[in-house]
Write a structure and sequence with these properties.
mainly alpha; DNA-binding; 7 helices; homodimer; 67% helix
Chain lengths: 150, 150
DNA sequence: CTAATATCAGGACAACTGATATAT
DNA sequence: CATATATCAGTTTTCCTGATATTA
């Protein structure tokens, strides 16, 4: 309808950027407010999920994967180690590295907890989005991943 | 293909929750790292966008809209007022409230800056996503908005 | 010697909670 | 008096930068 479809597209992309920023901020705040003491932080949950998916990894690898500094990843992982969910073993072929992996305790915990656990985001996705919408969201997550990766 | 399609859907929803958390975290970190000094924070950009879209509003209204406490919104808005982008006027019919609105300076700044401005997210969306993908992302943003709203 | 990894220390930022003043 | 708004002050969380030790 517009006489200048290009300008139209541009302004829609601009609005999209704003909406995306806003919704990301809201999501983050909501995640924090829903967190009960003893819960994992979003970063920690991400790390466990990644270790489960990709297998053992070093803190530096995890930091790169999450787009975060190695030092920051250190403080994300430390509580997980303290809780016995993640174990560290020195890399036999490279003494600088420590290989992190899920403990059996953690695997067990993930297995039994998954659906029952108090994961607000998971519950809300199941409650509020149809399977088709979940698929749509999954595709969009991949799109955003492309935006934030190098 | 699975014998238990329900369990399958559940585990996909669980992975989706994890991926969404991860990508939201990455996006936030990326936004921060791309911010040049003098840039608006994501919250501030959101506020300007909302004031432009919905017209003048109080800090409390903005806080509710962004899913944030009024006190927090205060510190988001304060720099915008100091920068002359937002002006406050007392509500004539309710002395408790201060009506915030965009200044002419800000409108001018938005108008001229929009495409040229150093908005990393906007530029990246335009550069990396096709118009169709942008539409898909916009739909997904609406889905996430449904998750984070009450 | 240079590069990569890990860790310690201190700092910045954005949100929070609690308390207080004021107006409805 | 109860409710809603705004603001001040202090705290927490999460990530950052900078520095140092160790190993490749």
């Amino acid at each position: 309808m517009s006489e200048t479809p290009d300008a139209d597209r541009t302004s829609r992309a601009f609005a999209l950027a704003g909406d995306l920023r806003a919704v990301a901020g809201k999501l983050k705040r909501r995640l924090r407010e829903q967190a009960s003491p003893g819960d994992l932080t979003p970063s920690q949950a991400s790390v466990l999920l990644r270790l489960e998916k990709d297998g053992p990894a070093t803190a530096s690898y995890l930091a790169r994967a999450e787009g975060m500094r190695p030092q920051s990843m250190g403080s994300v992982v430390a509580p997980l180690e303290a809780a016995g969910l993640v174990g560290g073993a020195p890399d036999p072929s490279d003494g600088r590295q420590t290989i992190l992996s899920l403990t059996d305790t953690c695997r067990e915990w993930l297995r039994e907890g998954r659906a029952a656990r108090q994961d607000w985001l998971f519950r809300t996705i199941e409650a509020r989005l149809s399977p088709e919408e979940q698929d749509e969201l999954a595709r969009a997550v991949a799109l955003v991943a492309r935006l934030v990766d190098d």
